[in-house]
Amino acid sequence: MAKTKNKTALIFGITGQDGSYLAEILLKKGYVVHGVVRRASTFNTARINHLYQDPHNKSRKLFLHHGDLADAGTIRKIINKVKPEEVYNLAAQSHVKVSFEIPEYTMDITGNGALRILEALRDFQTETGGKVKFYQASSSEMFGAAPPPQNEKTPFIPQSPYGAAKVFAHNMTNLYRDAYGLFAVSGILFNHESPRRGETFVTRKITRGIARIKAGLDKKLYLGNLDAKRDWGHSPEFCEAMWLMMQQPKPNDFVIGTGETHTVREFVELAFKEAGLGSWKKYVEIDPQYYRPAEVNILVADTRKAKKVLKWQPKTKFKDLVKIMVWNDINEFKVKN
Ligand code: NAP
Ligand code: F7E
Question: Which residue numbers delimit the NAD(P)-binding domain (predicted)?
Fold first, then answer.
């Protein structure tokens, strides 16, 4: 892997699934990495604890700052202090179902949060003479009801407050590129998972549920709509694509996915089989509380542009992703119990 010496990156959302993988990738490439962490009453740095470096270590490469996407003043202060060359906005209220319960908050963080960073960068850009680059974590959820396969030209028909907030942030990112000449890119990423996936997203909920059943802690797993189809990939590979987008000569938007789609039911079936539990039908019950007021029925990425321009290709196959996640959770529960 080519080393990039002494570049400085700032990651909003470093404690999340993608933020933790991106931090690893950038540190390996030789970057100095700064991350923004929310103050919480419990530890929220589990995904990056292995990267933590003692603040007394003079040659450390990872720095954490308290901040929140609701707080424009602190965003501005951190950017001015860190003087980053690359800024990645991965922070969001990222749960689609929850966005129906807290739509206004979702818009404020997932939508306006991106605008707050863009506004701070608009001024910072003048100071640096245009040397700063911005990455926005756009989402396939923006396509919503648009028929598949979806690519960079597909219209956005969002089906959730989260999707609508991401469309706003996406449009603002494009606007700051056009209006102010900011190097601003949006990665329109389809669902991507890993053992670090949040426990309430469906894939991790399934694999964690299976581990709890195997460990004798639960008897049932309660799920919602099993007919929805998703294009599921592996998070670390998708984070590498984020970095590639930022290394292009010109800012541009890219769809990142696998091009393959599977129902939630298929994920469930394969995961129970992999765990050796036999038929999933013995364990899974449908609970309508997990249905959404509006659903995105099918997502399939058309990644021709990313393949051609970024030379990026997904590597992990659906069945291998299921295997990785199932065994990670089974082993984790074995260690704990
Ligand atoms: P995630 O695991 O939910 O991580 C979200 C991150 O945002 C966490 O670090 C979280 O901090 C932080 N955050 C939440 N609210 C914040 C606030 N008010 N101020 C500052 N930080 C805040 O999400 P992910 O799966 O890594 O996804 C990364 C980004 O890509 C998100 O923007 C998501 O919407 C988008 N995306 C994800 C997918 C996917 O399939 N994973 C697909 C397309 C787009 P805490 O750790 O303190 O909660
Ligand atoms: O749901 C169905 C649910 O919550 C996937 C986020 O990363 O990807 C993610 O959003 C499907 C939906 O992900 C349960 O109805 C069934 O059809 O894992 P999910 P999502 O909504 O696709 C996009 C690209 C993002 O950008 C988002 O940030 O699974 N489903 N039963 C269920 N979903 C959940 N969560 N829980 C269930 O019990």
Answer: 10-325
Catalytic residue among 141, 193, 237, 274: 141
Give the homologous superfamily in CATH for domain 202-226+263-295+328-336.
UDP-galactose 4-epimerase, domain 1 (3.90.25.10)
Structure tokens at 249: 């000569």
281 CA → ligand 1 middle, Å: 32
Q: 189: part of which helix (H) or strand (E)?
A: strand 183-189
Which listed ligand is nearest to 228 at the C-alpha? 2
Domain with CATH 3.40.50.720 in the chain: 8-196+233-260+298-315
- In the DSSP assignment, the letter for residue 108 is I
The continuous run of DSSP H or E covering 273 comes out as helix 264-274
Q: Considering the chain, tell me which residue range(s) the CATH 3.90.25.10 domain(s) occupy.
A: 202-226+263-295+328-336
306-337 pLDDT, tens digit each: 999 999 999 999 999 999 999 999 999 886 66
Q: What is the percent of the chain with per-residue pLDDT over 90, rounded to a whole number? A: 94
Q: How far apart are CA 47 and CA 199, in angstroms?
A: 13
Mean pLDDT of 212-226: 97
pLDDT at 3 over 60: no
| C-alpha closest to that of 36 among 81, 75, 73 | 75
Active site residue 160: no
Report yes or no: 218 and 274 within 8 Å, Cβ to Cβ.
Answer: no
Average pLDDT over residues 136-162: 98
**CATH C-level class of 8-196+233-260+298-315:** alpha beta
Question: How many Å lie between the centroid of ligand 1 and the Cα of residue 128?
Answer: 28
Gap from CA of 128 to ligand 2 centroid (Å):
40
Query: How many CA atoms lie less than 13 Å away from 166 in the CB half-sphere?
Result: 30
Mean pLDDT of 43-60: 94
Task: Copy the structure tokens of residue 68.
Answer: 């929140």
